[in-house]
Amino acid sequence: MEEVKVYDEYTSSIFDGAENDPDNLVVVKNLKKYFPIKSSFFKITVGNVKAVDDVSFKIKRGTTMGLVGESGCGKSTIGRTLLRLIEKTDGQVFIGGKDIFALSKNDLRKERPNIQIIFQDPYASLSPRLPIGEIIGEAVREHGIVPPEEFDDYISRVMEACGLPDYYKPRYPHEFSGGQRQRICIARALALNPDFIVCDEPVSALDVSIQAQIINLLRDLQKQFGLTYLFISHDLSVVEYISDTVGVMYLGNMVEFAPTEKIYANPKHPYTEALFSAIPYPDPDYKVNRIILEGSIPSPANPPSGCKFHTRCRKCMEVCKYIQPDFKELEPEHFCACHLFNTPERQKELDELVAKMKAEEGEKGSTEKQKGNK
Questions:
Q1: What is the pLDDT of residues 193-228, one digit of tens each?
Q2: Over the chain, what is the mean pLDDT?
Q3: Residue 10, CA distances (Å) to 38, 206, 304, 329, 342 in order
Q4: Which of 247, 249, 251, 236 is nearest to 297 (CA)?
Q5: pLDDT at 365
Q6: 44 pLDDT tier (thresholds 50, 70, 90)
Q7: Other C-beta atoms within 10 Å of 263: how many?
């Protein structure tokens, strides 16, 4: 079934000119990242894995946006594409008013210190051959952040801000615990004095007590240096604690985006409701109305037509099977992509379109049947 998209005009109008607002540090418009599927012998592209499929959002300066969703929904791909660690397929990314993908190689290199990332696995992202003083200071020296005579004192101050004593400098990554290695990764990112940091599941591999230390460290550093975070995580409780806004991803699409208190108190999208119903509560007498999703996640290489969630949605309507919903603002700063919130006029328009599509399908099926009989 051919996919029908009739929502681009809504998404574009929501974020038009958002990059010119000085309060917005990051503005993402209709971002797409497709990975080609090659045939085994001739290496011909036979399809695409739609890892990120038309995603739009914005992050205000000095705030944290949480990004949640099931494994494989495109969260980490968004983070890496924002920093241009991988190239986009389509769309625009503005950081500090600059279109990241319009920058030349030299301009992008100058911009690198302002946009940093903390990777999920601290051990894999640290060179085992370098002492941590050199790991933290390597990019500082390369970009000329401080004069050579101030280099050693500067690294010591950065380490101190991240809870790392000065005498750790000559030690190697294998000599530290998981929490200490994550602090080293944070110090490496902070040393370049960035404006924006992508935190790609920075606490998922750590014990709960260490998680709390790292989360509190990130919050303290944000207050101290005015940092802006994109915080990617599976842990919904951690996201609620650290985030100012939350985006919910499903199979490459952003299905809901809102301030944290709004989305946790009143989730609109059926997928968000199901996701948040899985948050554990410490009170054993509190009964949670757990929503169990049926079926498995479809393949991003061959997603369902219409709303990608309709194959697992308990509130699925006929229009959901044919037309992808508009990503629209339901209330101030609360965006959602779901046909449940269509206006009567919009629903009538879509019902007519669905009826037309079903009629065309019937005619096509009838024609194919006649050809088969011949």
A1: 999 999 999 988 788 888 889 999 999 999 999 999
A2: 89
A3: 34, 41, 22, 9, 12
A4: 251
A5: 67
A6: confident
A7: 27
Write the pLDDT tens digit of every residue in 152-164: 999 999 999 999 9
Region at 277 (left for phi over 0; alpha for psi -120 to 50; beta for the rest):
alpha
How far is residue 263's CA from residue 150's CA, in Å, rounded to a whole number? 46
Segment 214-217 long-range contacts (CB within 8 Å, at least 24 positions apart) = 214/179, 214/182, 214/183, 214/186, 215/241, 215/242, 217/162, 217/163, 217/183, 217/186
Q: Are 157 and 225 in contact (CB under 8 A)?
A: no
Tokens of 301: 């290489």
pLDDT (tens digit, 9 = 90+) per residue, 85-95? 999 999 999 99
> Kind of pairing, strands 115-118 and 45-60?
unpaired
Torsion angle of C-alpha atoms 122, 127, 130, 131, degrees rounded to 10: 0
**Is residue 328 scored above 60 in pLDDT?**
yes
List C-alpha distances in Å: 291 to 179, 278, 279: 34, 8, 11
pTM over the 0.85 mark: yes
Rounded distance between C-alpha atoms, residue 202 and residue 182, angstroms = 7
Token pair listed for 121: 């696995």
> Residue 45 has which token pair?
């592209």
